[in-house]
């Protein structure tokens, strides 16, 4: 299977390293993506928006044969869902890692501190305790060393969804900070942020208790969860 790994804020394709190796060892072809604004030499982030990241992933999808699996971490889950909306017939499954596909018109996060055209990795004190579970001092230092500023347009631009055929695409949520019961409760209570989940024809949830960055804190377990999600 062709698997596209879409990183969340501040991260590039290399951040998936151990996960990529485990998926490849299982026989899959993996494309760990680095998106516009976070590639070597990218310094001008002005004008880079969410749709630019979606279009970058679409270009990879369109260049591959057959069906593909999209795996999106955090904000990458929003990108993956928008790609599924644009190419529903090409996507075998969307896997979101500690992320929930959000309704059209919502943005990934417009509350993070901005510096010019960028959203740099903020101080750890700005994150919730649940985000930082298992992210010890060594992992925090590694994360900060490799972190790249996120284009502010990616954080602030509302997502666009146009094709209801996306709801036929199977979705698996790998839930790290929140239990599956919380999602089921939100769907049952018709919470607005769970509106996309409520309309999905096939939604699976795999619990992987850890913080918001399992590719750092539990990479082997994350790879196994992805393999479980995509197995026939």
Automatic annotation (TrEMBL):
Residues 3-224 form the AB hydrolase-1 domain. It comes from the Bacteria. Pfam families: Abhydrolase_6. The keyword Transport does not apply. One of its GO terms (molecular function) is hydrolase activity. Coiled coil: none annotated. The keyword Hydrolase applies. Keywords: Hydrolase. PANTHER family: AB HYDROLASE-1 DOMAIN-CONTAINING PROTEIN-RELATED, ESTERASE_LIPASE_THIOESTERASE DOMAIN-CONTAINING PROTEIN. This is Alpha/beta fold hydrolase.
């Amino acid at each position: 299977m062709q698997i596209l790994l879409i990183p969340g804020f501040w991260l590039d394709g290399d951040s998936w390293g151990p996960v990529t190796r485990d998926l490849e060892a299982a026989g899959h072809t993996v494309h760990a993506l680095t998106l516009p604004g976070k590639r070597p030499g990218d310094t001008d982030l002005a004008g880079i928006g969410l749709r630019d990241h979606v279009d970058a992933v679409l270009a990879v999808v369109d260049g591959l044969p057959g069906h593909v699996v999209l795996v999106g971490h955090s904000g990458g889950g929003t990108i993956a869902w928008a790609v599924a909306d644009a190419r529903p017939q090409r996507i075998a499954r969307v896997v979101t890692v500690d992320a929930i596909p959000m309704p059209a018109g919502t943005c990934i996060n417009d509350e993070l501190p901005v510096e010019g055209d960028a959203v740099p990795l903020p101080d750890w004190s700005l994150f919730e305790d649940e985000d930082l579970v298992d992210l010890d001092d060594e992992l925090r230092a590694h994360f900060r060393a490799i972190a790249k500023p996120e284009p502010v347009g990616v954080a602030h631009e509302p997502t666009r969804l146009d094709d209801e055929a996306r709801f036929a695409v199977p979705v698996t949520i790998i839930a790290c900070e929140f239990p599956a019961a919380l999602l089921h409760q939100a769907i049952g209570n018709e919470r607005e942020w769970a509106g996309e989940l409520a309309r999905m024809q096939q939604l699976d949830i795999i619990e992987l208790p850890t913080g918001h960055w399992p590719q750092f804190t539990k990479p082997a377990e994350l790879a196994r969860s992805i393999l479980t999600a995509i197995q026939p």
